[in-house]
Structure formats: C-alpha cells, structure tokens
C-alpha cells in the first residue's frame, strides 16, 4: 500500500478529531448564564460559565467559539476569573467549520471532578442593522439583531439561560424558542437543559433603538512629548451617524417645533483626562462656541453640540486639543524614560472607532525606542518630525488600529533613552545664536570692510569736516562779539574805564 501525504493528513485529522471528541466528553459546562446588552449601538455579551471535569485527565484549557457570521464584527474578547478578575490568556484560531475558536488557558489546572467558574466577555460593532434602512425625520429607528438562542459551544451544556436587554419595550417581533418570554425591555431564552455541543437555533429580534449610532473613521491622534513638563495631545475626528439614513429632506422648522428626529444626535459628551488644561475645540469654520466644559471628579467633561443635528448617513469633522502635565505619564530612571498613557481616549459613550492613526512624537535625540501595547496594532515605519530649533529631527512612532471600542482604552508603554545633555541642546542653541548675532552686529558697525577707496565719499567726508571746523570758529567769533558788546554797554552805563579794561584783558 502506497503511503502518500494525503493519507498522512487524513490520519492526522482523524486522530485530532478523536482527541477533540474525547476532550469534549471530559469537559462539561454544567451551568451557563448569558447576558446580551442591546441597549446601545454595541452588542455586549457576557458569559458566566461553570466548567466541570468529568474525566480522569487534567484540563488546562478550553475552547470558546464565535459563529462565522459574527466573527467579522467582533471587536473585543476577554476571558477572566470572576472572583479575582484575573485575565486569562487566549489564542484565536479558525476551526474546520469556519468558527472563530479561542483557546483559553486556565489560571490553574482543572483536576478530575473539579469545577471552575469563568467569565467571557465579547463586544460586537455594526452587528445591529437598521430595518428599515431609510426613515423620515419623524419616524423612530428600528433595528434587527440576529443571533443564536443557544450558546455555541463544542461542549455539552447542562443548563443555560440567556437574557437580552433592549433599549426599549417597543418590540416589533422576536423569534420564540420555547421556553422564551418578554417582560418590558427584557427577553429571556431558557432555561434549556442538556444542550448538545454545537447546537444552533437562529433568532431575530426586531425592536426600537434610538440610541446614538456614532462611528469614528478616522481618528487621528497626535501625542507630542516634551521633557520641559508638558505633553500636547490633539485629535482630529470624523464622526458618522451609521443608523437608519434620513429619507427625504431635512426641515429645521419641524425639527424645532415638533422635536422630531428622535434618532438624530443633537449633542454628545467627551471625557478628557482629569489634568487636561488649555482645551480647545474647533471645526472647519472655527471655534465651536456651542459647548460646555466642566471639571468632574473622574475627568474633564466636554459637551459638544455640532452646528447641525446628525441624522443617519451624516457626519461631522472637528479637532480637540489639550495639554497634560508630563509628570503624570512620563517616568524615568537615569537616562531611561517610559511613557505610559492610553492609546485612545473616550470620545463618546459606546463609541466605535473604525480606524485610528496614532503618532507619538518623542524629544529630539531619543534612542532605543521600544513599544509595548495591550492589544494587537499595526506599527508603521518610524519617521522624523521637524519643528522649531530642531537639527536632526524628533523620532515619531506611528501605529494604526481598527474596530476599537471603549474597552480598548488601555495604557501603552513606550520606553526610550535620552541623555540629560541633549535636553540642553535647544537652550544652548538659542544662547549661541543670539551671541553670534550680537558679535556680528558689533563687528559690522565698527569696522570698515571696503576693499577699494571711494574718492567721492572721502571728499564729501573731508568737506563735511572742514565745514564743521568753520562752523565752530564762527560760533566762537559770535560769542566774542556778544561779550564785547556787553562790556561796551556797561562802560556807557557805569562810566568805569578800569572795569572795562579788566574785562577786556581777562575775557577777550
């Protein structure tokens, strides 16, 4: 019998399938509670799983599945121990059925007969679809959620319950999988007992959701670090309303009189760091005057009102900038510095950042740059940025990321080396420049650098000197004449020749 590579692959797949089946039989989810939050534009799903080892071998990890039709919308995934909130390491992969399979490593080995509780959180973006896609200014926004009544799992589930939280009690329709029920804005599926592995039952929930559907693409964030006590942050934002698009024309009169456009966005709030100062915000026309800035305990709250309400398909463009004290985010030990601050900040509640580009500008002379990020990003090639008094340029670390939500507001660490002598480069450069300028001015004004003589100029100077001498002698002669005339008048008045003779000999 000829043993080809196809035969080897066949036996390997068969062996892997048999081992997976054995593991599936040993590991059982005795209880599973799933909470689906549909109250905003995000789909937030929290799983509370109780794992049980019914076999004899030790289990160190388990698999969590995401359906193929939902994996592209997955923005955030995290598994943790509920009591300690310790995050468990997870590795994504694609299984044979096209599911996104996460291999989650347990913090401690699950011995035979033991149970362990695990929480798995997922956040999906653009998973709610507007239905209908076009609405008039007076209509409310209806959306559809499509999912599975059961938890998609490769393991048998002893008992599971799903609770779906909606933004409104106005539900057009929902798929009923017995037992299922609705109570106000809550839909409950289950409890279901003895659910076999990979069981699916498609459900569709059609309900009213007028919460802001705001997406940002792109978010250009610039962070400029200065070792003189300041970190300047500037964000250029293009914000879109991705809900049901406006059908027909917009009437400002009806909007003001009838308070229509319930699904439109009139204003939104941005939360800045607590130490933010010198805040500015402007759009293409100029400063956004319809805004409020308030200092709260947990940050600086900036409320912005665009120049027009945002309906579905509309967008706005604006810039936010502020300064931060460097001592809160920049740490050092000798010449080694570490910058620790969030990759992105809060722009709007339940935000969706489809695309972001972050530029971190370091001081001139920074070397040995190392970047540590909390999640996967794409780092672009480093570049140089030139500004005032720069000679070799400032290093720029540039990264991009996609499909981010509030859960991605996490700190990055950027370490680099910078000598303290380099910090004095710009002040010394200024002092040297002024010194050279003043010395040059002194030399230029006091020395004659002409190569050949200018006869006409010398004659003019010689004539001016002679004229000055004549003017002085003429002034002296006039003074003598005045004194002589004064003595003559005294002689006429007092008739004293002797006094006249003395004055003549001493003064004249």
Describe the structure.
This protein is of the alpha+beta class. It has three domains: 23-208, Immunoglobulin-like (Sandwich), CATH 2.60.40.1730; 221-418, Sandwich (Immunoglobulin-like); 455-507. It contains seven helices and 32 strands. It has helices at residues 5-26, 68-71, 252-257, 420-423, 425-446, 455-494, 497-507; strands at 27-38, 43-53, 59-66, 74-80, 87-88, 90-94, 100-110, 115-124, 129-130, 134-135, 142-148, 156-166, 171-174, 180-183, 186-195, 202-208, 214-226, 230-241, 245-246, 268-272, 277-283, 291-295, 300-304, 315-325, 330-333, 336-342, 352-361, 367-372, 378-379, 383-385, 394-404, 411-417. An eight-stranded mixed beta sheet has the order 5-4-8-2-1-12-15-14. Strands 17, 18, 21, 24, 27, 29, 30 and 31 form an eight-stranded mixed beta sheet that branches. It is elongated, with a radius of gyration of 41 Å.
């Amino acid at each position: 019998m000829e043993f080809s590579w196809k035969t080897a692959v066949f036996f390997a797949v068969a062996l892997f399938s048999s081992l997976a089946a054995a593991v599936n039989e040993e590991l059982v989810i005795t209880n599973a509670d799933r909470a689906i939050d549909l109250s905003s534009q995000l789909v937030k799903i929290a799983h509370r799983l109780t794992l049980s080892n019914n076999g004899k071998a030790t289990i160190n990890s388990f698999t969590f599945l995401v359906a193929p039709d939902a994996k592209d919308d997955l923005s955030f995934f995290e598994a943790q121990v509920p009591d300690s909130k310790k995050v468990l390491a997870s590795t994504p992969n694609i299984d044979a059925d096209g599911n996104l399979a996460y291999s989650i490593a347990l913090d401690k080995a699950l011995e035979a007969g033991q149970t362990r509780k695990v929480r798995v959180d997922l956040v999906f973006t653009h998973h709610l679809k507007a239905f209908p896609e076009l609405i008039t200014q007076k209509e409310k926004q209806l959306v559809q959620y499509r999912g599975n009544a059961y938890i998609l799992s490769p393991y048998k589930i002893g008992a599971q319950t799903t609770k779906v939280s909606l933004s409104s009690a106005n539900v057009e329709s929902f798929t009923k999988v017995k037992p299922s029920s609705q109570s106000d804005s809550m839909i409950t599926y289950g409890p279901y007992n003895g659910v076999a592995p990979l069981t699916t039952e498609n459900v569709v929930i059609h309900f009213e959701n007028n919460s802001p559907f705001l997406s940002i693409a792109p978010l250009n964030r610039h962070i400029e670090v200065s070792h003189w006590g300041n970190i300047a942050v500037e964000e250029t934002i293009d914000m879109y309303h991705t809900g049901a698009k406006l059908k027909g024309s917009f009437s400002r009169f009806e909007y003001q009189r009838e308070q229509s456009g319930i699904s439109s966005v009139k204003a939104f709030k941005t939360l800045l760091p607590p130490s933010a100062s010198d805040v500015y915000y402007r759009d293409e026309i100029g400063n956004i005057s319809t805004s409020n800035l308030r200092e709260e305990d947990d940050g600086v709250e900036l409320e912005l009102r665009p120049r027009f309400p945002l309906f579905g398909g509309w967008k706005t463009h604006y810039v936010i900038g502020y300064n931060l004290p460097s001592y809160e985010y920049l740490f050092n030990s000798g010449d080694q510095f570490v910058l620790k601050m969030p990759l992105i900040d809060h722009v709007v509640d339940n935000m969706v950042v489809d695309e972001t580009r972050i530029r971190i500008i370091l001081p001139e002379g920074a070397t040995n740059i190392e970047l540590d990020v909390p999640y996967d990003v794409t780092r672009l090639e480093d570049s140089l940025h030139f500004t005032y008094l720069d000679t070799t340029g400032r290093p720029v670390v540039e990264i991009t990321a996609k499909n981010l939500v509030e859960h991605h507001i996490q700190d990055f660490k950027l370490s680099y080396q910078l000598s303290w002598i380099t910090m004095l480069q710009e002040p010394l450069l200024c002092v040297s420049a002024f010194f050279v300028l003043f010395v040059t001015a002194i030399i230029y004004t006091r020395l004659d650098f002409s190569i050949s003589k200018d006869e006409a100029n010398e004659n003019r100077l010689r004539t001016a000197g002679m004229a000055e001498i004549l003017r002085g002698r003429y002034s002296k002669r006039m003074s003598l004449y005045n004194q002589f005339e004064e003595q003559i008048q005294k002689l006429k008045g007092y008739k004293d020749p002797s006094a006249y003779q003395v004055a003549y000999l001493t003064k004249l």
